[in-house]
Amino acid sequence: MSLADLIGKLRSDFLEELKAAVSSKDLESLKVKYLGKKGPVANLMLELKGCTQDERPHLGKLINDLKEELASHCENSIARLKSEELQSQFAREWLDATLPGRKRPLGRLHPVTQMLQKVIDLFIGMGFSVQYGPDVDTDYYNFEGLNFPPDHPARDMQDTFYLNHNFLLRTHTSNVQVHAMESHQPPIRIIAPGRCFRNENISARSHVFFHQVEGVYIDQNVTFADLLATFQEFLSKLFGEKVETRFRPSYFPFVEPGLEIDVRCTRCKGAGCRICKHSGWLEILGAGMVHPNVLRKGNIDPEVYSGYAWGMGIERLAINFFDIPDIRMFTENDLRFLEQF
Ligand code: PHE
User: Fold this and answer.
1) For residue 59, what are the domain limits?
2) Which phi-psi region, left, alpha or beta, contains residue 184 (left: φ > 0; alpha: ψ -120 to 50)?
3) What pLDDT was estimated at residue 243?
4) Final residue of a domain: which of 33, 62, 92?
5) What is the Å distance from ligand 1's center to 128 Cα?
6) Is the CB of 146 inside a 6 Å radius of any atom of ligand 1?
7) Which portions of the chain are predicted below pLDDT 70?
8) What is the DSSP track for 218-268?
9) What is the pTM of this model?
């Protein structure tokens, strides 16, 4: 084969292989294969030495043209394929930086939890410490230790969920009073937040479960005046000076004397609504001086010590504090309601 034919064959071989190349990598190796130092084009240059002086300029030019042609084919195709490859990479990694970000909903504390924390904070500020008691307790701690004799009608005041003849769901947090006196000698100054359960009809103002914050203060010379002062202080701190309160005598077997403390219904401002049973007042806590029988059962000498105790309904307080029309909203888990707090 003459050198001119070789040149032609090399050219067509190259063009064949060029057609088959699909990636910029294929092309890089094609370029090395044909145009590399020991490749066929370089070899043609060596062949040139065997040619006559006359042929040389012509053939030399042919080889150089071939070299340039192959090189420019390679460069063009490499550039084209590289840009195609980049395009498809962009398509795969597509991202719209102008899209709005994903919204991460922010959690918040349930209004009952917020109310609990406010109350707890205020009493801690007044020198009380927090003690927790069991939700499931025995008849003794929920009733008997609190001066409810067996079969005493006062037990009917609180419709109880019994688990068996002895265990029950506590109907109030007052069980913690009994636990506290059993394990500590005075001075005792604790609050006991927790959940309580009563087998009652569910309505706008009462539920089968709810929260209370119990409190007990037992020491020498604790008087009824201390109790009143504590609540005047607590309620004015909680509501600001504005709230109107009412202290009225009441009965609980474990206190003597006993009272209930009401606040003006903020919902109807006293005009009467279904939250306050049209009385204009919301009963938020029961309280009183700890009954001597309760102290005795707790091994505390009533001749030496006296104390006061209270139990406060947190949902009742919260409907007033946050101006909520119905106590059932707390347990319906409706986000439109919960997101307002
Ligand atoms: N335990 C009573 C109730 O749930 C409230 C109370 C507590 C009253 C302590 C007096 C003293 O109604």
Assistant:
1) 3-92
2) beta
3) 78
4) 92
5) 18
6) no
7) 153-154, 156-158, 241
8) EETT--HHHHHHHHHHHHHHHH-TT--EEEEEE--TTEEEEEEEEEE-TTT
9) 0.70
